């Protein structure tokens, strides 16, 4: 059962991605409201063109507050060419590839369009539910 679990089974698809040009304060607000550590950045066709993390925002806020230069946008702080995964990717394979320095959030792309994100938290919750019988019912409802 666990073997056949796919990214599409645990991905979140209700969180809107960030659009190119979004000002940094709006990016930060979006991350905080959605309780995620990072989000994909998409163009007008929902193609993933970047990824921005809390850490990227922290760094950018420190720099912009210190230097007092113009307000940065997501374009200035995002990483380009982020790692994306397919909806068909096995959750077990994804979990085995997690590690130090790896993303905590994976954009899920289908035919070049963003369809959702998989978070490390969702992977943990699903593996715990399946493997250890941990009751994460309240967590699942909060997502």
UniProtKB/TrEMBL annotation:
Q: Where is the CBS domain?
A: 11-69, 78-136
Q: Which Pfam families match?
A: CBS (PF00571)
Q: Please identify the protein, giving its name as recorded.
A: CBS domain-containing protein
Q: Does the keyword Kinase apply?
A: no
**Database matches in PROSITE patterns:** CBS
Q: Signal peptide span per the entry?
A: none
Organism in which the protein naturally occurs: Marinobacter daqiaonensis
Q: Which UniProt keywords apply?
A: CBS domain
């Amino acid at each position: 059962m666990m073997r056949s679990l796919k990214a599409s089974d645990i991905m979140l698809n209700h969180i809107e991605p960030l659009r190119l040009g979004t000002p940094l304060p709006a990016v930060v607000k979006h991350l905080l409201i959605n309780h995620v550590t990072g989000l994909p950045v998409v163009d007008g066709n929902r193609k993933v063109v970047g990824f921005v993390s809390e850490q990227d925002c922290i760094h950018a806020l420190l720099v912009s507050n210190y230097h007092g230069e113009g307000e940065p946008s997501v374009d200035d702080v995002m990483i380009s060419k982020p790692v994306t995964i397919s909806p068909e990717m096995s959750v077990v394979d994804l979990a085995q590839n997690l590690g130090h320095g790896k993303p905590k959030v994976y954009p899920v792309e289908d035919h070049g369009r963003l369809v959702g994100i998989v978070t490390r938290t969702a992977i943990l919750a699903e593996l715990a539910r399946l493997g250890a019988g941990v009751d994460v019912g309240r967590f699942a409802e909060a997502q």
